[in-house]
Amino acid sequence: MIDSSELIVIGGGLAGSEAAWQAAERGVRVRLYEMRPHTSTGAHTGPHLAELVCSNSLGSLQSDRAPGVLKTELERLGSLLLRVANETAVPAGGALAVDREAFAARVTQAIESHPRITLLRQEVDAIPTAPVVIASGPLTSPALSRAIAGFAGQEHLYFFDAIAPIIAIDSVDFSAAFRASRYGRNSAQAEDEAGDYVNCPMTKEEYEAFVEALIAAERIALKDFELELEGGVRAGANHFFEGCLPVEIMARRGKEALAFGPMRPVGLRDPRTGHRPHAVVQLRQDNLAGTLYNLVGFQTNLTFPEQRRVFRLIPGLQNAEFVRYGQMHRNTFIFSPVLLRPTLQARSREDLFFAGQIIGVEGYMGNVATGLLAGWNAARFVQGQPPLELPPTTMLGALCHYITHASPGDFQPMKANFGILPTLEESGEPPVRQKRQRYQAYAARSARDLEAFLSRLGAG
Ligand SMILES: Cc1cc2nc3c(=O)[nH]c(=O)nc-3n(C[C@H](O)[C@H](O)[C@H](O)COP(=O)(O)OP(=O)(O)OC[C@H]3O[C@@H](n4cnc5c(N)ncnc54)[C@H](O)[C@@H]3O)c2cc1C
Fold it and tell me: Ligand 1: distance of its center to the CA of 400 in Å?
């Protein structure tokens, strides 16, 4: 039975869990629908809410980096998922990385025990006619995808991403690999001075042989992958989000592309030679126990046997045990510039909100953040209050502004970055030439404007 004083949230991922929590905390009864574990997305592996499907890193913590600014805003706005991430953090230099199991289990427990949230493990196959937040993610079920395509009046875009492999750390050969963080920037949790990351160094010759093997390796044919897609949607967009390019695709862009990309050696010295290696493969801790590590930036669509063969050419990984292989996946998102307002409401239906990856936001924390705003605004809608538009000088406000104002012709998913903020001049401040200081000024402006916004609301 649909009740207009309650809110429906579809999808218990990063955005949906945060949205449900925010609405419930504001006094609204929430029915949260999550189709797992009965129906799988093909990428999630467990039953928990807020499962991180690939990297366990939630991005930089540094206050003069865009993801750091976003986290400061989320902290101020009372994000559940950020709080849980801080509680389940693992060492990752200047970044916030979590034990994915502990993170998802704690979010699930918080949602399940909230007195105003009812969690229903069911797939939703139509858009409800009651107030609703759709946060069904990049792997929205086919039936709901069709319903959204019907509502939107235009086709979806399928877009491809890829995930990186995870290996067991006790299979790494430390006579070749060494521990260090770039520029010695270790997290507070680093047990010793050695560093948070495991680094596999390569000489120029080793690097060139590796790149050659990578380029020649067998990939899972895109055609097979496309054939798995549902009918009624645009399946021809066989291109990748630049921030998540498969390593073998990047390697094809030029001999040194990887050495300037995920394998860049800057800030690292091999303790055995005292020199900077020609290239480095970095491994980042993936679970609290510190037994699993992922290959940073090594999203891939190679066949599994080829991943074993080629990635074992990396010095230190000759006996690597792969606990998860890299894979490709689809990424479904709507044309937000046409369909959404910066409040994350549908332009044509004010009780319908969207949040998360499905609106064309990239990055775990960006998805949490849009879930926060959608849940907050949906609660306000249910309670008869006008929805909120955050200042465009905040990172979250800028993200929502960007995706709802981008040119529809070349709309691409966007993650938190300083390029989407108004310049300092645009907000009446003197320009700052030096990049680092300019970013610090952006961070200060975001904090100041968010505070002013909250105090105008009476929530400060
Ligand atoms: C394989 C893969 C790898 C990725 N790697 C990264 C990465 O390394 N870093 C990064 O920042 N981002 C990555 N992403 C993007 C990542 O998905 C998002 O950052 C984040 O998970 C999106 O949050 P979300 O809440 O929008 O979607 P999700 O977290 O996917 O949550 C959506 C939820 O909705 C549920 N659902 C779907 N359809 C229905 C339905 N009809 N009824 C009920 N429930 C439904 C799903 O089961 C899922 O739990 C990756 C995505 C995929 C698929």
Answer: 18
